[in-house]
Amino acid sequence: MSDAPLAYYAPASRIRRRPVWVPTRxxxxxxxxxxxxxxxxxxxxxxxxxxxxxxxxxxxxNDNAHLGxxxxxxxxxxxxxxxxxxxxxxxxxxxxxxxxxxxxxxVHPLLAIAIVLAGGVLLGTAMGSxxxxxxxxxxxxxxxxxxxxxxxxxxxxxxxxxxxxPFYDTLAGLTIPLTGRVVLPFPAIVFLLVLVxxxxxxxxxxxxxxxxxxxxxxxxxxxxxxxxxxxxxxxYALSGFCAALGGAVFTIYKGSGNALDGxxxxxxxxxxxxxGGTLLVGGIGQIAxxxxxxxxxxxxxxxxMFDGRLTTxxxxxxxxxxxxxxxxxxxxxxxxxxxxx
Amino acid sequence: xxxxxxxxxTEAVVTDAGGRATQPRRARFRxxxxxxxxxxxxxxxxxxxxxxxxxxxxxxLDVVNGQLRGYVITILDLGTPVMLLALGMxxxxxxxxxxxxxxxxxxxxGAVAxxxxxxxxxxxxxxxxxxxxxxxxxxxxxxxxxLCGLWNGVLVALVxxxxxxxxxxxxxxxxxxxxxxxxxxxxxxxDPSFAFLAGGTLFMLPFTITLVAAMALIALVLTRGTxxxxxxxxxxxxxxxxxxxxxxxxxxxxxxxxxxxxxxxxAGLIATADIMxxxxxxxxxYLELDAIxxxxxxxxxxxGGRFSLAGSLIGALVIxxxxxxxxxxxxxxxxxxxxxxGVVIVVCLLQSETFRARLVRAVRRTPA
Lengths: 341, 368
Description:
- The structure holds two protein chains of two kinds.
- Chain A is mainly alpha-helical.
- Chain A is 71% helix and 3% strand.
- Chain B has helices at residues 9-22, 33-54, 71-78, 80-94, 102-118, 134-159, 163-182, 192-199, 207-225, 228-237, 239-244, 249-275, 287-297, 309-328, 333-351, 353-365, and strands at 62-64, 67-69, 201-202, 205-206.
- The relative contact order of chain B is 0.17.
């Protein structure tokens, strides 16, 4: 753009013609993630051909549905340049609250889920308001949220609670048949739904565009007259909602609630979002990238499990290394930006 | 400048009190060095007072087997890991950074030391043979901790990655590394000099307290006795400006992370020696949060640019005495977490310029 007036005087040879398609800065991290995901999948499939069976693909989605749902909400917060550390404990708190409400107090599961979702939104709104109105660091406020929810969850019940209710069993049994013998289970359905809605919200609604704008530059967004406060509070509320939904889905997946569920999950979710190509400074990233990030996480985990020689803690090390690789890539991209400016 | 960078925090109170006497028109709600130390001290005093009322023998000290015993000593002793972490974290935060990996570094260091003592056959460190020399083992483990700090420092200062994320990498993979070192086992190092680290007595006090005092003294002398503290603050305020004025901003940042790694290593050794077990999953779990909390209670701005080592130590004591108090009052551990959440928010609000401005406005409006 800045070349335009210069091009008038420049010799014809110096006018850069735009190739048919070059990835924009928005797309490069996403493409890199897609390539890594494809390569990892191919490698896993090469060593363990079972990876190519549709059932394993469905399982990859299903086993990590809760993480994916949480990560979608977190992506919004991180797109705006914020962070939400409370998601893991919200998952645990939601699970145990559902267990107590349904099993001990005979609340109908639908009502119970509505209550916990409202709780998630309330917590998110409260944290967002503190962050916005009082200029508090998001890191510390959501850290307080982490403490609070984990404490609340343990106060509600220390023991794991089995959730058995006919309606819950119906939900867990809800599937979409894909091919002859492979079905898409309920958690995976919810995950994909959340993903589609997330992509729609991020790309085609004002809220989504405002989120990108705030991530790009909060002061510019403010000067342009965008509702910065409403959007910021809204996305923490959205993250709280997604975390609570992830917790609810996790109880459906496991059939029980435990106050310690989701411990450390905030880190997995952040890692998935970052590996998914969302730039940490905000403004650049895709919800679809988060799906890829979760899949990469899932493939590494499952591959290491299949291997049997390596133990599960290699998952964490591999994830850390992958995180490093992606951040270095992002750094390179930022460097390119700096040079252009 | 003389009030913001005093030679020592205790002196800060004196200088500032004097300064206030001669300049009464100073802005009332600015967090000067004096109020920064005042609030955490008041919080600590309130908690101790509450304890004194509930347990009249709270401040009583007895000499048992040549060691001072009492509630206060216990709080100091239990608080040492967080105090050590808080020392390192203070310097990192002063440069405008944050170190999330300290808990993982504790686990790694504890694992390294235990494995070197026990020498299980299937560990990643089986090849290392230090001939059973405890000095060598301590040096080796702390060397690993220094390496961890160096890794963080390189990522932040040289590569230029955001501190939260750069240290998140080690936080995520560090426990995996610790598991690798212990081969997934809980290793129980039985060695008298290792046990001394957590249970030993020196100068009638638990050895841990002496250790923390020594580290605090070193940190104080380094930062307030030399220009290093000034450099840390200037880098935290504006890295570019400090680079232009000749401060090696990258080196300063790097050193802060290395120091934090070293402190985390010491804390890890103490925590491991305390339970005589290297548990890669649980050693130092969530302690990074406690350390950050201690630093922010102590009045160090999380945005960097100014710090108070004494404040952070008091902050760590506030957290520890709060925990101990709640336990002594038979409050569930879970409620402790929720109270901590409340403390974080209150501390944040008190530090927020916006909140204080609103509060002042609200107070001025009501009496008319």
